[in-house]
């Protein structure tokens, strides 16, 4: 894969290497991708877990009906093994 960077992105890339955060431009790009993933993508998982916890609390309090597998599958329950 080839990536062409210009302007501020190229400046940041060069600075990451010059300052010693990365040994090469490729390593700097990998570090940036990992940082992005940790900062932004894991938050989505955190929000999903909070929503699931909320649903569980509602179910335990009796404000939400929880279906067992037979109820959820209806006529397709016969395909359960």
Brief account:
The chain has 81 residues and is mainly alpha-helical.
Task: Give a written overview of the molecule.
The structure is a single chain. This protein has one domain. 65% of the residues lie in helices and 0% in strands. The longest helix has 36 residues. It starts with 6 loop residues before the first helix and ends in an 8-residue tail after the last helix. The mean pLDDT is 90.
Keywords:
elongated, mainly alpha, 65% helix
Outline the secondary-structure elements:
Elements: H1 7-18, H2 25-60, H3 69-73
Largest sheet: none
Please give the share of residues in helix: 55-70%
Mean pLDDT over the residues: 90
Tell me the number of strands: 0
* Residue share in β-strands: under 5%
Gross morphology: elongated
Tally of helical runs: 3
Distance between the termini: 45 Å
**How would you classify the helix and strand content by structural class?**
mainly alpha
User: SSE order, as H and E?
Assistant: HHH
List unreliable stretches of 5+ residues: none
Radius of gyration: 24 Å
Number of domains: 1
């Amino acid at each position: 894969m080839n990536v062409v960077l210009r302007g501020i992105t190229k400046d940041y890339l060069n600075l990451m290497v010059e300052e010693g955060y990365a040994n090469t431009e490729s390593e700097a790009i990998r570090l940036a991708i990992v940082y992005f993933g940790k900062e932004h993508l894991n938050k989505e998982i955190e929000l999903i877990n909070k929503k699931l916890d909320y649903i569980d609390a509602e179910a335990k309090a009796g404000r939400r009906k929880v279906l067992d597998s037979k109820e959820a599958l209806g006529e397709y329950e016969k395909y359960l093994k």
